[in-house]
Structure formats: C-alpha cells, structure tokens
Amino acid sequence: MPDSDAKGDDSGAVLDLASRLRSEHHQSLKLWQRMLSCTVRIENEIRARLRATFGITLPRFDMMAQLNREPRGLKMSELSRRLMVTGGNVTGLTDQLVAEGLVVRRATPGDRRAYNVRLTPKGKRQFDAMAQEHEQWITDLLSGMQRDERDALYESLDRLKSTLVTCLPSATDASA
Amino acid sequence: MPDSDAKGDDSGAVLDLASRLRSEHHQSLKLWQRMLSCTVRIENEIRARLRATFGITLPRFDMMAQLNREPRGLKMSELSRRLMVTGGNVTGLTDQLVAEGLVVRRATPGDRRAYNVRLTPKGKRQFDAMAQEHEQWITDLLSGMQRDERDALYESLDRLKSTLVTCLPSATDASA
C-alpha cells in the first residue's frame, strides 16, 4: 500500500496516520513470515540430515548441544527451560541417553529432588562428531549469500535480539 | 578469530585458506544460532499469547491460517505438507475443528481417498478475529526496530530465501 502524502486538513491527517499504521502492520507481518519461513526451511533440512546421517532426532541433538556447553552439567529444570526450542520431552530423552551411556544423571548435592545431567566422555565424543558435520551443513546452507550479506543479516538479527530482550525480558537466556 | 594476512609462501596460503574456512564456518553458525534464537523467542511469545487470549494452540492457529488463504480448501496431504512448521497432527486437529463447526471435511470429487478441508463461515469469522490480534502482537514485538531497520532485515531475509530456494529446491512452497 503506498504511503499517502500529508494532507492539510484534520481528516487527511487521520487518514494518513491510519494508512501508516496499516502499512507498518503489513510490513511487520511480512517480515515475521519471511523470518519464520527461512528458519523452518533450514531447521527441517537439518532435522532430515540428522536423521539420515546419524539416526537421531533434532531434540536429541539440541539437548546434547546444551549439555556440551556446560561441562559441569545442567539441572533437569534448566535443561527443560533451554529446550523450549524443540519442545523435546527432557525426561524421556534423558532416559534414552542414560541407557546408551551418553549422559549421566546424578542427584544434586543439597537438593535431593533436583537432578543434574551431563555428557559422559563417550557422549562428548559422539556430540563432537555430529557438531562438526552440523556446522558444515549450516555453512553450506548459508553459502549462497556473500560474506558481507551474511554480515548484514547478522547485524539486523543482533539489533532485533536486543529489542526483543527489552520487550520480552523473561525470554533472556544463555543461548545465542 | 582475526583474518590472517595473505602470505608469500605456500604454507602461508594453506594456513590462510584454512583460517578463512574456519572463520566462515564460525560466522555461519553464529548467524544461524542468532536467527533461530530470535525466531524461537517470538514464536514462544505468540504461542503463549494464543493460549492465554484464545485458549488455542499454535498448530491450530497455523492450520486455520493456511485454510484461510485457500477459500476452496486444501487436500489433507497438502495441508500436512504446509504444516511442517509446527508438526501439528493434521488429522487430530481437523477432527477437533470439525466437531466445533469451524471447518468442513469433504471427499474430493474423483478421488475417494482424498479429503478436502476448508473453513466454515464461523471458522472464517473466528480466524479473522484471531488474525487481527496476532498481527498487532507481531507489530508490537517488532516495534523496537526502526522502520528502515525492519526494511534492512526483510531485504536480508529475502536474499537468504532466494539462495535457499536454489540449494533446497524441494523446500519451495506456497508460504511466505
């Protein structure tokens, strides 16, 4: 919708404001749909490659990635919070990974109801191998853009993230 | 990691290439993590507001949004394909919406195994009311950015989308 020019009378100014608001809504919605669409395309491709190459699910990869960042492990509650990304069932995932010797789950000293989960050396090795491949996939998927185009996108997203931290303060977390 | 300067001998050139590749990997991974993080923050906020305001799930909203774009309805198989976004169980969602009179499901003429689903007038009215609110939420969540910042982000994402269509041709779809 074209921006209407400023008018000399009040009704023109009101129309102009309404038109600008509609235009802003339209722009924001298009932007969000484009961002969601790009993210989902990449995520679905990664999900398919993880399954085909390593036989694992995306929630499982994401959980091991979170644990890999914290050599001393994470409380189950913190792990659940961080894994809102994929909505994986943390308890079920942990049970599987414990059975395969990839993570250990231990009671937290001083808090018998809280469990701490961390990667075993075997889990760390398995994750490192997958992470290397994952990084290559991401590099390939983004390689259609020039380096300066990727820089520009990163800077825009950085700006968006800083405004989201302000308007959604509860959403701050330790992830990128 | 700082870019290393070009070297005069072969070992320097090899090191330089390796360093540039590592730097590109690092940049791409950071970019992807930032994009995923921004998308998930907004998506989780929208999910929470849909539940609090309208008592509905995000997959249900997404399904009604897809049907709203197609007044003549969609085949179940096409609906499933488009809803990879949220992984909603299309059959279960359709059963619920039929029971509430918000969609109708009819056999496709000439293909008894294929069902067509479309919004009822009641479903359309309910979706329109939710969509108006949803658009306002998106506008508010992105309002921390200036208009030209949003334009820049949209242009970057547009560029990304066009490169993804090339490297993931199977991912082309009718969505934004």
Short description:
The structure is a homodimer of 176-residue chains. Chain A is mostly helical and 176 residues long. Chain A contains 6 helices and 3 strands.
How would you characterize the overall build of this protein?
The structure is a homodimer of 176-residue chains. Chain A has 176 residues and is mostly helical. The first copy, chain A, has a domain at 56-163: Winged helix-like DNA-binding domain superfamily/Winged helix DNA-binding domain (Arc Repressor Mutant, subunit A, Orthogonal Bundle). In chain A, 65% of the residues lie in helices and 10% in strands. Chain A is built from 6 helices and 3 strands; from the N terminus they run ααβααββαα. The two termini of chain A are 36 Å apart. Mean pLDDT of chain A is 85; it is low at 1-8 and 172-176.
